[in-house]
């Protein structure tokens, strides 16, 4: 059977649990038509580059599908009917990646960086770098009085 990667954008108003329920519904459609979902990745809520149907953000999800074209057509037909689905795109691929997608790898890297940043901040304490301790400015001398526009 052909292999597909399918990306789905759902409205930001719906909860993550509702998105998972929608995906389970589409999974049922695929399985009824003789296919199967190999992998599901929930990418979370992300900002859109431009408004889509008055939404600035959307829930993103990736589905790796092994199914006949008729199953994909039926799933896409049902997505077009749904008001909660903003956009979707299905691409036929030669093989499906079993490892995490680039979006999931990016999330893992970002999470690691945040944890490392938090540890460093705790180790150094506040004022260890950006504008905290101003003792390293050297002697500047007296600046004198300042006048602000209109006086003088």
TrEMBL record:
It holds the Pfam family Ribosomal_S6. Gene3D superfamilies: 3.30.70.60. Residues 105-124, 133-152 have a biased composition (Basic and acidic residues). Coiled coil: none annotated. Keywords: Ribonucleoprotein, Ribosomal protein, RNA-binding, rRNA-binding. The keyword Kinase does not apply. The keyword NAD does not apply. One of its GO terms (biological process) is translation. Residues 97-152 are annotated as: Disordered. GO terms for molecular function: small ribosomal subunit rRNA binding; structural constituent of ribosome. One of its GO terms (cellular component) is cytosolic small ribosomal subunit. Binds together with bS18 to 16S ribosomal RNA. NCBIfam families: S6 (TIGR00166). Belongs to the bacterial ribosomal protein bS6 family. This is Small ribosomal subunit protein bS6. It comes from Methylobacterium tardum.
